[in-house]
Amino acid sequence: MLLSFRRWWFNGHINLALRLSTAVMLWLALAWTLDLFLLGLLSLLALPCVFISGIDQPSPGWGKRLAWSIPLLGGVALVFGALGAWWPPSLIPALLVAGVLLTTLSAFGELSGRTGLAALVMAAMSQVSAGVIPAWQFALGTTLAALWVVLFSDWWFRAQREYPLRQALSLSYRRLAVILASRLRWLEDPSLGARFDLPLAEQLALVRRYVAVAKSRNRLTPELYQAFVAAVDLQERLQAIPNPELSRALFAQPGVLPAYRLWVAVTSRRLRQVADHLMTVQPIGEDPRLADVEQQLLTALTPLQRGRFGSIAPYFVSNARRISRLAQRVAPLYRRPMIGQEPVMDHWQRWRQHLSWSSPIFRGAVRQGLLLATTMGIIQYFDLDKGYWALLSVLLVVRGGIVDTRQRAWQRIWGTLVGLGLAASALSLGLTGNWALALGLVLVPPTLSLIPVHHGYSCTLGTIILIMVFEYIAGQGMSVMPLRLLETVIGCAVVLLGYRYLWPQWQGGRQAELRRQAIGRLNHYLLLVLSVFEGQQVSSLSLARARRHTYEQGVALTSSFEQMRQEPSYSRHRDSAELIRLYKETQSHLNALAPAARRGTQLTEEQSQSAHRVLTGAVAALERALEGQGSGQWPESVEQERQRLYRLVEEGRVDRTGFVLYQLNLIAERYQQMLAIAARPAPDKH
User: Fold this and answer.
1) With 70 as the cut, is the pLDDT of residue 192 above it?
2) Which of 15, 44, 281, 502 has its C-alpha lying 20 to 30 A from 464's C-alpha?
């Protein structure tokens, strides 16, 4: 019974709803006590802005971020509230300027970009109070409400022992369990797992952020840090497949497959158990079955360490043992630093770099400003009330790509339509006054918790809240419904037309630049690993950082490709899919080499020189091809060295050094295949 309650309480959506509803109720209780209930109610319009900006969640430099983001929200509320009340025509140029300036904040990173979007949402929200209460009161109320929600959330998370970090870790382990379980299907379908897993990448990025914050606040417990490093190790080892074709044949052997199936099932269940215990703040015990199934798998693999599978079977014996230990202990196999000092950003210089038409951020900012100004111009031309609902449609529908934006626009339209229908039904049943307000307040937490889940559902509940508030304040719930639907359609239409014809950012147009960035990271990772085998000193932190950057660029390339597949008339998509597959396989080989590099394995002088000439030549040829230089042909001198390296593999012993040479030879093959793709033009639709 207690365990079921803990699972219910720590469910991500339920916990979010409980946190926000408690904060809202306490805020309104204070406003009621001070006889400022209407001001307190309207100041809760800051809640979506807090949620969008993410300032209620732990983030690096959280105190500094609060010091500028909350005054920014209050200042925007004051300026746009005053303009809406005293000089509405001035909102058109003001929205144009604000749209450009605040959208360019994304040049400083995701969190800054979200804060800029939240400030624009506040500019739209301020029109709700125009003419109802003075602009300065609304600005002060929203500033205090935002500060209250942020401070209450910080106390809430601390009381639950770093809940955001635990939640992100739990979701990461659940995703790792899914990936491990999918390995059985991968034996039959090689196309599975050819690209990077985007949900896992998103969760690991959040974990890394929360770990850095907890460490800076001296709240990072050994248990959570070890679980974080173990999750990174598991992701690295699950991705590391020395030779995909030969590996599938190995695990499909009649003597291996039953033991492998059992090991995958038990280990996946163990990872889900770890996720559950992390979420519900329970001690993580051991699973006695894991050692038994591990031994069965090792017994099946050990006889295959000679012969056809001699080059990879020893690695998988070691890898299975280490994955089992990671899952059992939920701690890294060895201690090493994972969080280092990141380079200090020159904010002014970085912002100036994006103030040019060649920057997608600047083009997007100009487009955002034009769309907001155009929407407000249409609203004022046809005298359609204050226009905030149309502005919110413009701001909340826009996504990174045109395909996602179009999908979100339709979700907003049908979500608004359904919400109006439900609100009309409630009003027709006599739900007015305080009962209408009560319904609206009850729906606030689930609405906010649904925002990251589905825009249509959150828009349905948000529409009901808006109509109930109008009914409570002025008894105009029914009368504003047609206008709300019209404003939604206007806002979505402006966005769809603007994103289609105003400098559309097709993902195909980003492929060339993303390829150069990704291959650059991969080359750096390769040369760093190679330098270790040549006897140079490289820190564990440098290797971990190179692996992470390579992984993140692969995720960015995969994300762009997934969006490009949905775009009309995209070109050369097969090359993009194949390049991602080869990129991931190359990183897989490097991840397989990383343990040997950390243990200080070194090649002989002859082996080192041969590998160096092959791989540095391959790196140079691929870089030239991506820059549009050279013939795009595999250099003959590199091929001669590769054949020499292959002979060294054939003549060498099946030991740790032989495994390193074997993997380096496979990496050279992958580079040759990537060069053939790089020699052809990247997708070029803009």
Assistant:
1) no
2) 15
- Map tokens 């999908």 to a residue: 407
Q: How many residues does the chain have?
A: 686
Nearest to 526 by CA among 659, 337, 667: 667
Question: If you search the block for the tokens 């762009």, which residue do you land on?
Answer: 560
Q: What whole-number percentage of the chain has pLDDT above 70?
A: 93
Sorted by sequence, the CB contacts under 8 Å of residue 664 that are 6+ apart come out as 530, 593, 611, 614, 615, 645
Q: How far apart, in Å, are the Cα atoms of 151 and each of 24, 34, 39, 166, 492?
A: 13, 21, 20, 19, 35
Q: What is the pLDDT of residues 251-266, one digit of tens each?
A: 888 888 899 999 999 9
pLDDT greater at residue 355 or residue 507: 355
**Cα dist. 117→50, 106, 113, 251, 398 in Å?**
11, 9, 6, 50, 10
Residue 164 CB partners (closer than 8 Å, separation 6+): 57, 58, 157, 206, 210
Picking from 40-49, 398-407, 493-502, 598-607, which range would have the lowest pLDDT averaged per residue? Answer: 398-407
Counting beta carbons within 10 angstroms of the beta carbon of residue 236, is it exposed (0 to 12), middle (13 to 18) or buried (19 or more)?
A: buried
Taken in order 573, 574, 579, 584, the sign of the CA dihedral is: positive
Structure tokens at 19: 């946190």
Q: Concatenate the DSSP letters of all residues of 368-426 into one string.
A: HHHHHHHHHHHHHHTT-TT-HHHHHHHHHH--SSHHHHHHHHHHHHHHHHHHHHHHHHH
Summarised one tens digit per residue, pLDDT across range 214-263 is 888 888 888 999 999 899 889 888 877 767 778 888 888 888 889 999 99
Q: At 13, is the secondary structure helix, strand, or coil? A: helix
| Phi/psi at 54 (5° precision) | 75, 15
Choose among 445, 441, 469: nearest CA to 29. 441
CB 133 within 8 A of CB 45: no
Q: How many CA atoms lie within 13 A of 378 on its CB side?
A: 19
Round to the nearest angstrom and report the end-to-end CA distance of the chain: 57
User: If we measure between CA atoms, which residue out of 90, 195, 80, 181 comes closest to residue 139?
Assistant: 80
Decide: 141 and 128 in contact? Cβ < 8 Å. Answer: no
| Torsion 219-220-223-227 (CA) sign | positive
Q: Is 530 exposed, middle or buried (0-12, 13-18, 19+ CB in 10 A)?
A: buried
Query: SS3 for 361?
Result: helix
pLDDT at 434 (0 to 100) = 86
In angstroms, the CA 192 to CA 95 distance is 46
- State how far the alpha carbon of 208 is from the alpha carbons of 253, 331, 377, 385, 681, in Å: 39, 16, 44, 45, 36
Note the pLDDT of residue 173. 95
Distance in angstroms (rounded) separating the CA atoms of residues 460 and 464 = 7
What pLDDT is stored for residue 228 in this prediction?
92
The structure's pTM equals 0.86
> Shortest CA distance to 326 belongs to which of 228, 194, 416, 260?
228
> Could you give the CA distance from residue 404 to residue 399 in angstroms, rounded to a whole number?
6
- State the Cα angle at 650 between 644 and 654, rounded to 5°: 130
Q: Is there a contact between 352 and 359 (Cβ–Cβ < 8 Å)? A: no
Q: Is 337 left (phi over 0), alpha (psi -120 to 50) or beta?
A: beta
**Strands in 216-256 per DSSP E:** none
**Per-residue model confidence (pLDDT) at position 661:** 85
